[in-house]
What we know:
The protein has strands at 3-7, 10-11, 18-25, 33-39, 46-51, 58-60, 68-73, 78-83, 92-99, 115-116, 120-123. The protein is mainly beta.
Amino acid sequence: xxxxxxxxxxxxxxxxxxxxxxxxxxxxxxxxxxxxxxxxxxxxxxxxxxxxxxxxxxxxxxxxxxxxxxxxxxxxxxxxxxxxxxxxxxxxxxxxxxxxxxxxxxxxxxxxxxxxxxxxxxxxxx
Length: 126
């Protein structure tokens, strides 16, 4: 098991930026697929951005393409979600997740991940 701790959420205005961090304890993230999901009130948890196990593929939800960037610092055992040009519809609890058996076709599937952080709230008022 990998313990994940998120940080960086908060209350911002439309157009602002935030960087979320997900720190892993106990081991490196090498060989793990890494992902950010989010869940808005009354909605299902959805994938936002992912990195494949090899690091060779990055995928983004259409709603965040061009605004959000996922990155990883293996030395720090941390990965990030840089969020720019935030919109009210980005308001949600953001969760990080990792998995070492996630195949490429399942990268955006929350069921493929077995280690989750506790979530961090991002609020962008309309």
